[in-house]
């Protein structure tokens, strides 16, 4: 089983609908992230959380919200989806140690807004 | 100016050649630098990390860092068709350790 699991893996939704992408991890990491990836733009940070009570906006948070339900769970919501939110979304986790700085990615969630 | 810049490619090299991938970054206080490989439709996977000026070798991969020039590169020796992927450069961003800023990636194509 994957250490970082995203659901759903693929979703098509209509403009204006609310959609939630869920992420759970078994790595025991404190830090969790949501990125989106668009062709030619690389990975851009949407939100990140360093622990359950800590939520921070990334570079492109407008139109998104997040919830850190537990150390192992971090969900991303699009309250009213729009077509330019069509992208590949990645959840990621990391530990807080100064050595072995590594981020682990989930398998990605393809979201299409029509 | 983007925080992390890469040439989008594609960079095309013949099998067995050395592929050279380059990355520049704008934040002088960055301390950690990473190269990720991403196959189409898949998640990025870490292949190299480098923290100090100079070279770091791991198998066929060598990462090079020059903080004065704000430049990091990845060399892939004896390139194989299986190396064909997009390579993402990532730099730790402001606001805390472990928050990475990614470049847009360079697509590498290794042809037989």
Rg calc of chain B: 13 Å
Largest interface: A-B, 25 and 26 residues
Q: Give the tally of β-strands of chain B.
A: 11
Q: Count up the helices of chain B.
A: 0
Tell me the strand percentage band of chain A.
over 45%
User: Total number of helical segments of chain A?
Assistant: 0
Task: Provide a descriptive summary of the structure in words.
The complex is a heterodimer of chains A (114) and B (112). Chain A is mainly beta. In chain A, 0% of the residues lie in helices and 57% in strands. Chain A contains no helices and eleven strands. In chain A, the strands form two sheets. In chain A, strands 2, 4, 5, 6, 9, 10 and 11 form a seven-stranded mixed sheet that branches. Chain A has a four-stranded antiparallel sheet with strand order 1-3-8-7, with no helix packed on it. In chain B, a hairpin with a 4-residue loop joins strand 7 (61-66) and strand 8 (71-76). Chain B has 112 residues and is mostly beta strands. In chain B, strands 2, 4, 5, 9, 10 and 11 form a six-stranded mixed sheet that branches. A five-stranded antiparallel sheet of chain B has the order 1-3-8-7-6, with no helix packed on it. The mean pLDDT of chain B is 91. Chain B starts with a strand and ends with a strand. Chain B contains no helices and eleven strands. Classes of the chains: A mainly beta (114), B mainly beta (112). At the A-B interface, strand 4, strand 5 and strand 9 of A face strand 5, strand 9 and strand 10 of B.
